[in-house]
Amino acid sequence: MADAIPLVVHATHEAGVKVGGIGAVLDGLLGAESYVRQVQRTVLTGPMLANDPVHLERLNSPRSGLTIRYSSLHGIFGGVSEDQRAALQAVEQTFQVAVLYGTRRFGQAEHEVLLVDATSPHQGQVNSFKYFLWEHYGLDSARYSWNPEFNLYIAIAPPLLAALRAIGAGAGLAADQRFIIAHEWLGLPLVFAAQMTEPGQWRTIFYAHETATARRIVEEHSGHDTRFYNALFKAKEWGLSLEATFGNQDDLFKHPLIKQAARCDSIFAVGDLVVEELRFLGGGLAHAHIDLVYNGVPAPETTVLAHLESKRRLQVYCERLLGYVPDYVFTHVTRMVLSKALWRDLRVMEHLDGLLAGEGKRAVLFVLSSSVPAGRRPEWVEAWEAQYGWPVGHRGDNGDLIDQEVPFFFDGVEPFNQRNGPSRVVLVNQFGWSRERCGRRMPEEMEFLDIRRGSDLEFGQSIYEPFGIAQLEPLAAGALCCVSSVCGCVGFAERAAGGLAQLPNLVIADYVSLPQGYWLGSPYDALSIDRSVRDWIEANNSAAAARTIFERLPRTRRAQEALLERGQEVAQRMSWEVVSQDYLLPGLRKLQG
Length: 593
Hints:
single chain; 24 helices; Rossmann fold; alpha/beta; 45% helix
């Protein structure tokens, strides 16, 4: 194949086990037909955590799709040649690590996986690499040696590169035929190891799934996105960097690592604002080559009848919980973390309540979010359901509500529900969406697909969201999707639809734009935006989002069909196949020749 790419190495913490957003990206990209057709060999590299029983359990589970060919930790050696076995054992002895080599399924495809456990690595080798990082990159590893995550990814990088050589990855290939893609800062040490050991022999890419420095600043200050992005936009006018605006950020070890991404041959960014954030870091990143490589959106085919059946199940559940059948079902499926800004859902709902009441309509908002990703034991949930009506009622003294669930429910959900408006909010803080996991009042036929396919509106008004796949998952089922203006998916949706005016399914809640007359003369004026200012802007701008939602909610079967048809069309244009064919692969080919 004339345009084939011989080798792509993905350096990521989710090489062996899917645990989060990057895992979803890998599933989408590495399973895309165009990727499989045009990339001849793919190797995923990352850590193996031998001292973490949960990690090992997930790694060994059939659901991981992993087939082990070689692993001294597992006592498996027969899946490789004698030469490869000897070479891998030499890597283990040199670096005092354990290596796993195998394959893993991604959709219909299967790709190679290399994992390294560095529980007790050879400190001489580690120190030698750290000295190289200090000498050539100015990275002070000693400053961050207290951080086990930093130490892990520094320790595994040189043995991973040596293991790649042991399995023959890249042998005989020119530099523009083999690529290392560093997914976030965790993959950068492998890039640095390649630049140390095999200088000029690889094309390297930093794949920015976020900007860690920007995330921290947004999350840690009460002005959140309203403050940060106004400061960024104003600083751009003044020609100021992030550190000139916000001060030195080197206490966050990710920050100096990310700034070294300018040493890569190219950078991929998942959203338009991520590009702006990287430029804002200054230094080499201010003028580095950055390509947009958006995330993809699931685009399963469905029908209005299927949507209505899923919605019926959700309506039945609402009736059993709250005693009424809602005209509209709203949802928010997300992680229970600060960046998801769940309080903004309630702000919009406060305005929607009055609009719905004027039309004699009722709604329910199911928030499926938990601080315990693995979920609670089902027998506990059934007991809470019987004792005090979980998930309508909750307690904070028995393992029901924990961490951020506590203030969200007691300070947000419960006061909202006590207002006796036409809507109610239900916090389902349990992993899974089935009777088995969520209690006996959930319809027996309910499945997770129903909360995506049956929703009339999905919320996702994050304060920091580099892309936001989950916010758009119900798009293909004809739902409205209410996202904040800082979500990276907005840019992709605008391109796919030919303009936001051509996509009535997408409602943009803008909490960054300041009211007319609120003047910022400098980026330092923006730094004075605090919670009181943000609250004021959220109160005003959430009303505009609510009005738009209310106007676009379907009142007829034909209106629902129109939303479904348009949602399907745009979701198809935002699929992982499109991302692979039109964004990722062209980004790689720019580095060839």
